[in-house]
Amino acid sequence: MKALLIKITIGFIALLSSVKAHSQENHKTCGTILTEESQQLIADHLISPHRVRISSDPMRLAIKAHIIRKSDGTGGLSESQLTSALEKVNNFYGNAGLEFFLFGDIDYVDNDEFYDFNSDSEQALANERDVPNTINIYFANTVTSGSDPLCGYAYFPGNPDRILMDNSCTVNGTTLSHEIGHYLTLYHTHGKTNNGTTDELVDGSNCETAGDDVCDTPADPNLTGKVNSNCQYTGNLRDTNGDLYQPNTENVMSYAPQDCRRIFSTGQYSRAFSGYMSFRSYLNQKNYAADFGISQSIACAGEEVELTNMSLGNYESIEWRLPEASVASTTDENPRITYSSPGTYDVELTINGDDGGTDIKLLENAVKIIPQPSSPDASLEMGFEMEEIDEASLHSPGDTFSFSIENAGSESEQSFSMQFHGYENRNAVDYYLLSPLENPGEMDYVISFDYAFTYFSDGTSERIDEINILSKGCGPQKQVWSANGKTDATANAKSQSFVPKPAEWNHVETYVPFDPESNFVQLFIEAKNSNGNNFYIDNLQISYTSQIVIRSIAVTAEQCAGDQNGVIEVDASFNGNEISYSLDGENYQSSGLFEGLSAGDYEVFVKSGNDIISESVSVNVISQKPAKPSIIFSNNELRLLASAFEIEWYHNEVLIDDSGATKIPFAGNGDYYVIVRNKSGCENISDVFTVLGSEMPVSSVSVYPNPASEKIIIETVQGLEISIYDLTGRIFVEASIIKGITELSLNDMNEGVYLVRIISEDGIETKKIVIDH
C-alpha cells in the first residue's frame, strides 16, 4: 500500500526573481497522502486537544532506525547525522511532552536495490524489517514515488508505523520533524489537500474543521512559490470573504522554504500530544520490550506447548512465570511445558534491561487445556439462533474477544460474528470452540457453512483481518479453511461497520482433516484482528460423508515455459475404499502424483468403483523463456542480437565467455552458440553458428542493385553460400549459388536495412543492402 500521499513541496522550487536559492532537497516533495479513511478515523477518534494536558514528564516514543547502504556497506546516513537529526526532533517535540529515542541497535540494510529507494519497493523492504510498537524510519540515499523525487513520506493513524526519509532532507533540520508531525495527526497548514488554496477563512471562524484543524495557525493559502528570500509572504490571495491571507511562513508544517521553517504553534503541540494519546500510546517507552509466542493456544492435558522468547531491544536476562505448568518458572530461552488439568492458564515473561529496569508481558488465559470429551457428537448443525454465546466455548488470550450473535443471517435471522470493526485490541487472537466430534474412523467429515466478510478500505493494506477454522484432537492442529478479509471478501470495502445483505454471503464446503491417533475431533474458529471489518458465519453443518472426498490438490508451477516440470498431487479418500486418479478420465493410476506437466488447465478425476468426481486445476508458469537468440559475424566479431540477464558464449562446445557480453572477438574457425538466461533462470539457446574463416573481402563478387526493390542480383566467378537477414538476426533468404549471375527474390521482405552474408572458399564478407519497394 502506498502511504497517504499528497504530493507537496517542502522546500519549493525557487522563483529566480524572488526566492532564495535553496539546497537540493527543496526541489523534492513530501509524499504523505491523507486518505479519506485516515481523515475519518482521526475525526472520529482523536481526543480533543482541549481535553488533554501535556505531561510534564515526557512520553517516550521508540524509533527503530533502518539505514540503507550500498550492498558493499558503503554510503548511507552516518550515526552522527542520525543523532543530530534526532536531537532537532526532540528540541521541537519536547514542547509537546514527547521524547523520541532509538530502540535497540541501528538496522543496516546493505542492498543496492533499496539504496535509491522507490516507493514501489516498500513492501519488499519493510515487511520483514518493521519492528512492532516502534516508529520504523528508513533512511535512503534518495526517495522517489514513480518518477517524482521525495523528501520523505509518513503514514497517518490506521496504517503502518513507518516513515521513509531522503538522507539530504533528514539533515536539513525540519523535514524529519515535519513527517513525524504527520505520523502524530498534524496536517499541512494549508489543509488536507494540495488542490488549490485552503478552505480555512482568514477570520478563523471555521478553524476547528477547516485547513489544518488547528486554530492558532493562521489560514494558509499554500505557500509554494509565495515566500521570498526574507521569508516574507508575497502572495495577494483572498479567502471567500474577500479577506487577504496573512499566513505564518515559519511553520514547520507549511510549504514555506526549508530555511524559513522553524516553529510549531502551541495548538500543533497540543494536537501532536493528543495524536499520541489517541493512536500511538502502544509504542514502546523503553529500549527493550518483552514479547513471546505460543506454539498452540489450545491443547490437551499432557500435550506439549512451546514458548518462544520474541523480546526486542537491549536486555540482559529473562524469566518466565508459568503457574500450574510442568515448570513453574524458568530462565530458558524457549521452554517446552505441559499442563495436567483442563483450564486456562496465564503466561508471564520478564526481561531485565541493560539499564537496570524491567519490562513484563503478562498474557492472561494464554493457554486453554481442553478436556477429553466423554461422548462426542457424530455430527454438528448450528444456525446460531441463540440469545448469547456460551462463554465456555470462548478462548481469548488477554480477555479481549469480540465474538457476538448478530441479527444478520444468510437464510435465518441470526449469525455468529467477529466484530472486527472498531475492535481496539489490534493483533489480538481469539477462539471459538465448536462441540467436539467423535473419531470418524475410516469415514470423512465434511463441513459446510455460509460466510460474509469484507475489509476496511482499498487505501490501506494494514487493516486486513483473518479467520481460520482449525481442527485438532490431542495432536497437531490442522487448517480446515482460511479467509482473508480482502482476498476472500464477499462485499466491497466498507469504512462503516459491515452488515451483510442477502447477496453478500458465500457458501463453502470442504473436508475436515483428522489425526487418526486421536479419539475425537475438536474444531475451532480462530480470529486474528487488524481493525478491519466484520466476519459472519451461518448454517454451519458437519457430518460424515458417503462420497469421495478430494482432501487437497497441491500444484507446483512449471518453472520455465516449456520445461514440463509442473506437478499436481491429489489427496483423496472414500470411506477406506481403494481409489485411483486420472488427468483425462480414461487412464487411471493408483497414485495421485502427476509429474512432468506443462503449464495449462487440467481436470483431475478421482474414481472408486463406479463413483467418479472431478475438479479443475491450473498449472501456472513462473517465467517465460527469453527469446531465441541469434548470432551475426561482422568485423571479426560475433555479436548477439539481443540482451539478457546472463549470457554464455561457447566455441566448439567449450565455454569461452560468461561475462554477459553481447559481443566477443573471433576465436577461430568452428561452431559457435550462445545461451541466454533471464532473472528467473529460464534459458534459451541459439542455433549453431559456423565460422569457416575470419571475415575478409570475397574476391570477384558483386551485389546489386542497392537499394533493391523486387530482386537482388549476385554476380560471382565462384560458388558461394548466401544468407540475407534483418538486424535482429532473422534469416529471410538462404541459398547456394554457382558462378555466374543469380537473381534472388525480395518480394516476401519488408522495406528496411538488411545484411547479406557471403561465404566462399577465400573468405567471409557481410554487405549491407536497403530494400525499398
From TrEMBL:
BP GO terms, sorted: proteolysis
Pfam families cross-referenced by the UniProt entry: Peptidase_M43 (PF05572), Por_Secre_tail (PF18962)
UniProt domain PKD: residue ranges: 301-358
Gene3D superfamilies registered for this protein in UniProt: Collagenase (Catalytic Domain), Immunoglobulins
Signal peptide region: 1-23
CDD domains in the record: PKD
GO molecular function: metal ion binding; metallopeptidase activity
UniProt-listed InterPro entries: Ig-like_fold, MetalloPept_cat_dom_sf, Peptidase_M43, PKD_dom, PKD_dom_sf, Secre_tail
KW Ion transport (keyword) present: no
Matching NCBIfam families: Por_Secre_tail
Family per similarity comment: Belongs to the peptidase M43B family.
Name recorded for this polypeptide: Por secretion system C-terminal sorting domain-containing protein
Species lineage: Bacteria, Pseudomonadati, Bacteroidota, Cytophagia, Cytophagales
